[in-house]
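Support request from a user on the community tier.

User writes: "When I paste my structure tokens into the form, the page sometimes reloads and wipes my input. The last time it worked, I copied everything first. Here is what I submitted, just in case something in the input itself triggers the reload:"
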């Protein structure tokens, strides 16, 4: 830490001595790391109206998407504007907000809404995404797939479940419509998970002896998405 910054920090803290580890911080290195993190996040929010609608179509009907260029060459970035199959966080974030809003309205109609309920829903959703990402990173690392699944990309893949939850919640007022929408969204979410996690670039780095294990693991992940759809979707019928 430079003497000027250290002096200013002491002035703000009333002359309190800062711990040695804070005095030895390399501000240039911290600035560089911060700038690198800034360059990683914006591409996941690069989107236009056309690419947003295209992404919704891909989520709603993943079985009709013929061109599935999910992988990106090493050292290159792929904007969701140019490739709607590329991972992005804008669409999942929008539908997460809509899903939380619909869930709150349903709970309010039942006169059971409270801020604690909303906090628990948000915390539950975040914890589920966290554990899915951790499990994926650990398992793929053990299977010999290294550095091909960025955390933000996995977050984009798994948080897309919010789209299907939104669709199901819109029909949760009727038992028949709920199960029809659930079955359709379950099939779509199953296929979406398989196609996003089974990118050609990542699977090309499989160890030969682990190919069958990875296939089963991807099927389990896709099946977990189906279970989560049923557990998280509101039911007011």
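"...and here is what came back when it finally went through:"
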């Amino acid at each position: 830490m430079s003497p000027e910054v250290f002096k200013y920090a002491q002035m703000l803290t009333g002359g309190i001595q800062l711990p040695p580890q804070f005095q030895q911080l390399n501000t240039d290195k911290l600035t560089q790391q911060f700038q690198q993190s800034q360059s990683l996040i914006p591409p996941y929010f690069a989107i236009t109206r056309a690419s947003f609608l295209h992404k919704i179509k891909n989520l709603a009907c993943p079985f009709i998407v013929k061109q599935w260029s999910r992988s990106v060459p090493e050292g290159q970035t792929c904007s969701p504007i140019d490739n709607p199959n590329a991972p992005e966080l804008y669409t999942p974030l929008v539908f997460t907000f809509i899903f939380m809003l619909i869930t709150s309205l349903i709970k309010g109609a039942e006169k059971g809404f409270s801020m604690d309920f909303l906090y628990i829903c948000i915390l539950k959703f975040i914890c589920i995404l966290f554990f899915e990402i951790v499990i994926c990173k650990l398992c793929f690392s053990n299977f010999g797939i290294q550095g091909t699944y960025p955390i933000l990309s996995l977050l984009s893949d798994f948080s897309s479940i919010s789209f299907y939850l939104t669709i199901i919640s819109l029909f949760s007022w009727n038992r028949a419509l709920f199960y029809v929408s659930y079955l359709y969204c379950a099939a779509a979410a199953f296929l979406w998970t398989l196609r996003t996690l089974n990118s050609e670039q990542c699977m090309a780095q499989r160890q030969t002896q682990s190919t069958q294990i990875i296939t089963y693991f991807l099927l389990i992940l896709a099946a977990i998405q189906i279970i989560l759809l049923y557990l998280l979707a509101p039911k007011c019928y």
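Agent notes: The reload is a front-end session timeout and is unrelated to the input. The first helix runs from residue 3 to 12. The mean pLDDT is 79. Escalated to web team.
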